[in-house]
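Hi, here's the filled form for the chain we discussed.

Project: internal
Contact: R.S.
Residues: 96
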Amino acid sequence: MRDPHEVIIRPLFTEKSTYLKESENKLVVEVARAANKIEIKKAFEELFNVKVDRVATINVKPKKKRWGRSVGKTRAMKKAIITLKKGEKLDFIEGV
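And the returned structure, exactly as it came back:
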């Protein structure tokens, strides 16, 4: 198994992820593209000491972007929506 810090890259803070966190106790994070659901679940439980109920993954494809005459792409990434078990709570910005 990989190091948990290599599997979970960063939390994603968007309007939708904030709504999911408040209403359904789900967290959205960016994960390594090669990680599977089992590795994500184990890494999240080890890093944050919470019980994970489900993990859903989404592969985000790169989008085309233009900067004047040059054309490029945004980077591809993999997102994971992590559902915590009932009674579990995690706040990423607790210490701020």
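Let me know if anything looks off before we file it.
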